[in-house]
Write a structure and sequence with these properties.
Strand content: under 5%
Order of helices and strands: HHHHH
Distance between the termini: 30 Å
Number of domains: 1
Helix content: 55-70%
Number of strands: 0
Radius of gyration: 13 Å
Number of helices: 5
Shape: globular
Structural class: mainly alpha
Length: 98
């Protein structure tokens, strides 16, 4: 669905790119598994752009009780994306979620 040969815009691309990242995160709960996979890949490959929005959504989703977190598939997906982003940005201490 997304062209893997097109490099993502630079982090200074502005609010349009950031709103696109936020919209992709917003769509995740309603997306089927194939679209979720595509979004996960794009967010992971767009690490410099997606990092802040992904971290914000993880924080928001972790504010609920642990029982609800355990059932949150989107939270798990975003934690995996965060691990890939940290790895791509050279932060090995946080790149692997256990």
């Amino acid at each position: 669905m997304f062209d893997e040969n097109v490099s993502p815009a630079a982090p200074s691309a502005g609010p349009c790119v950031l709103s696109t990242v936020c919209r992709l995160i917003e769509v995740l709960p309603r997306a089927d598994w194939l679209l979720q996979s595509e979004i996960e890949t794009w967010l992971s490959q767009s690490s410099a752009i997606a990092q802040e929005a992904v971290a914000r959504e993880i924080t928001r989703r972790q504010a609920v009780p642990r029982e609800l977190q355990a059932k949150d598939n989107v939270l798990r997906l975003l934690l995996a994306v965060k691990g890939r982003i940290d790895e791509a940005l050279g932060d090995p201490a946080t790149s692997r979620i256990v």
